[in-house]
Design a protein that fits this description.
With 198 residues, the protein is mostly helical. Among the domains are: 67 residues, no CATH class; 71 residues, Arc Repressor Mutant, subunit A (Orthogonal Bundle), CATH 1.10.10.10. 67% of the residues lie in helices and 0% in strands. It is built from 8 helices and no strands.
């Protein structure tokens, strides 16, 4: 080998502008773009839906917990960002909020096993959704339709969900959500009619 010829540089010591350096930049670029895109998506998600989530929690529990619970939902959205449907973010957030609220309530209920109420038992005095409604007849009618129907009715009335968004929150088909809302309304009308005292 002539003395003036330089040996080739190993790939990791390639100078800037060399083919190896350009390839290394190309190999890392998609990860940087995806991260920036994720950051932008998440920022937009929080700006667009934080108020709705805080209101969701404030209607269902102590106001001082609402922002913390909303933050938990957004943390879950960040961790599971690949699973969040880009065309139906708010319904996904409401569905996740329902699970987050259920977990939060379980953490704060300190009951011996023998005192745990049966599934579906509605305790009006302990339910902020029902106690916030001032009319005793309506509270009674809502309590009598059952937990699932009440949840559907309140998602529709308070959160303004119907159709596809309601279906996504409930984890069922659109036609199933429409039918569930129709049945819940019918049961509420029947319960209301039975309870009218004036």
């Amino acid at each position: 080998m002539p003395a003036s010829a330089e040996p080739p540089l190993p790939p990791d010591s390639a100078e800037s502008g060399s083919p190896a350096a350009e390839q290394a930049a190309v190999d890392t670029a998609p990860a940087d773009i995806a991260t920036r895109a994720d950051d932008a998506w998440f920022t937009d998600l929080v700006h667009a839906h934080s108020t709705a989530l805080v209101r969701y929690f404030a209607r269902r529990g102590p106001r001082q917990d609402a922002e913390d619970l909303a933050a938990e939902v957004f943390a879950t959205a960040w961790r599971r960002r690949d699973a969040v449907p880009r065309d139906a973010e708010l319904p996904w957030l409401y569905r996740t909020a329902g699970f987050t609220l259920a977990n939060h309530r379980r953490k704060h209920v300190d009951l011996p096993v023998e005192e745990v109420p049966e599934a579906g038992a509605v305790r009006i005095a302990d339910d902020p959704e029902l106690s916030a409604l001032f009319d005793a007849e309506l509270r009674g009618a809502l309590a009598s339709v059952g937990e699932r129907d009440r949840r559907i009715l309140l998602l529709h009335a308070w959160e303004g969900l119907d159709g596809e968004e309601l279906a996504q929150v409930l984890g069922i088909s659109r036609s199933g959500a429409d039918a569930a809302l129709s049945r819940a309304r019918k049961r509420l009308r029947e319960a209301w009619g039975e309870r009218l005292t004036f």
